[in-house]
Amino acid sequence: MYCNHFITVFLVCFCFLNVQAQELTNEQKERLKYKVDLFSTDDVELQTLWYEDRMDKMKLSGKLRQDYKKIVVYHAYKMECLGNPEVQLSDEQIRREFPKQIRKLHNDVKSILNPKQFEIHKNSWDAILKGIYQRKNWKLTN
């Protein structure tokens, strides 16, 4: 259930909060780098800033940034739906489906990102997946 909250908060942040990223100090940026496991549902602004920072590191702007966001939001929504009671998946089934959905996300964004951008994207989502698994006390397997 907690991963549903995490994904929901992530979607809300990503879709509806277009926070104008405040200038972070180098120390703050370093602490935020791939530190998803520190997020809680109360950290909406931090989550938004963290992902905005990821897109800034990828140097995404304009239409490319919008297209990338749309793809990410779509797949984040699919991940959120895994926990929907109507889908009736067990905890174990949900645990196995998360990496599959992330691989689909990777495949969809790979064609629009250059190799360096894709590496940042992949590292970001590996951190998100790891954070979800740690919170759920699941073993991370691929």
What does the model show?
The structure is a single chain. The chain has one domain. The chain contains six helices and no strands. Helices cover 69% and strands 0% of the residues. Helix 1 (2-16) packs across helix 3, helix 1 (2-16) packs antiparallel against helix 4 (62-81) and helix 3 packs antiparallel against helix 6. It is mostly helical and 142 residues long. The model is unreliable at 15-22 and 34-42 (pLDDT under 50). The longest helix is centred in the C-terminal third of the chain and has 22 residues, at 115-136.
Task: List key phrases describing it.
single chain, 142 residues, mainly alpha, globular
Describe the protein's topology:
Blueprint: H1 2-16, H2 26-32, H3 44-57, H4 62-81, H5 91-110, H6 115-136
Helix pairs in contact: 1-3, 1-4, 3-6, 4-5, 5-6
In DSSP terms, counting alpha (H) and pi (I) runs of 4 or more, how many helices?
Answer: 6
The gross shape turns out to be: globular
Helix fraction, binned, reads 55-70%
State mean pLDDT (0 to 100 scale): 75
Helix and strand element order? HHHHHH
Which class best fits the helix and strand makeup? mainly alpha
- The total count of strands amounts to 0
Radius of gyration: 15 Å
Regarding quaternary structure, how should these chains be classified?
Answer: single chain
Instruction: Please report which band the strand proportion falls in: under 5%, 5-15%, 15-25%, 25-35%, 35-45% or over 45%.
Output: under 5%
The profile of the biggest β sheet is: none
N/C terminus separation: 22 Å
Number of domains: 1
Low-confidence stretches: 15-22, 34-42
